[in-house]
């Protein structure tokens, strides 16, 4: 008791003095924290709008803005990506590969060479690419897993513990029982879309699985805003599946609540799918997998190349690919995407394409599952439609397909969207393809969707009530975060 009284007599005056100045101490701490966070943002953000947006949030919402920037605004992946390269996953890639063979259309040669320089990967002949609607794709994937004899590598953003995910788990478990090497990678954030998550079910069935950038402890989750959005399945290092489809029951419900397009890939470009999966698996599980393609060298007529993009060493690659494709177009650009909030450079490139006589056709869902993104898109679409873009809103169900074709020859399919998240924050995987027959098939898919879609005029966009237009403009201000 005497010791407590002595402590109180010794420290009470000092504590009283400190508490007397607490407003100043809090203000000074907030000022220092804001300066440090702002300095990091302006020094490290490549996009001036993102730097400005974070700076505004840091200063306008003291402490909270700094905490949010520290939690989701700092890219901590780039240094680890350099370590992965040093460990040998990409050492055999030529940084300036010769494009062999070249696309048949001469005006696409420069784009093919640009993609080679961006990715360090060659354009590969002899591939076959088969687009599949989601229910057919899910059935084909399960059948391929059941036929696997050597290996099954599966990466997905969302793996539902539902009517779509459980049959896949059953097929994976059967493969494990046959002695097949099975590896499953699920995004840490995407795994939370289902409760309970599939992780316990996978492990209970003996399926080796891990999550990408996941921790249940918030203070150990510095990557909350960086997500592995790739969807890749490789069977026996010879057959691949990739595209935009998650493993969710909405794709196969009756009636379906979501539409999507996935593709079965055969040929040497499957090796690019394996490289992408192997890098992500090594990052997450610290295990090195073989990346050599062992299937037939000639499976079809398609020239193809895998394009990995993300906030690591691959930052900016997808955006540059889109700019190159738009700039190379001479006759027609067709785009189907669920989320369309491009940055100013991409929007301007599309406007210039319209103004130089290229037909630009854009198909978006009439209603999306993320309303904020749809509102932001409604704010910028009038400028694009005013310059000649043909805009369509597809009918329900929600269309999650991601396609782009140029001049009836080039196509890109994969997991990437046209928004800030896919262009700067997500890890994405797409495949570029040079083949008129494939591009024609994809164009016919879009035409079928267009038959049930609604053409949207400039007048309709401009005649929205004032409060809705204000809502859209405010949502667009959040574009760097969407």
Automatic annotation (TrEMBL):
What is this protein's record name? Answer: Phospholipase D-like domain-containing protein
- Where in the cell is the protein located? Cell membrane
Domain PLD phosphodiesterase span(s) in chain numbering: 224-251, 395-422
Gene3D superfamilies per UniProt: Endonuclease Chain A
| PANTHER family tied to this protein | CARDIOLIPIN SYNTHASE (PTHR21248), PHOSPHOLIPASE D (PTHR21248:SF22)
> What transmembrane ranges does the database entry give?
20-39, 51-72
InterPro entries in alphabetical order: CLS_N, PLD-like_dom, PLipase_D/transphosphatidylase
Q: How does it sit in the membrane?
A: Multi-pass membrane protein
**Highest taxon of the lineage:** Bacteria
Question: Which UniProt keywords are listed?
Answer: Cell membrane, Membrane, Transmembrane, Transmembrane helix
Q: What is its main location?
A: membrane
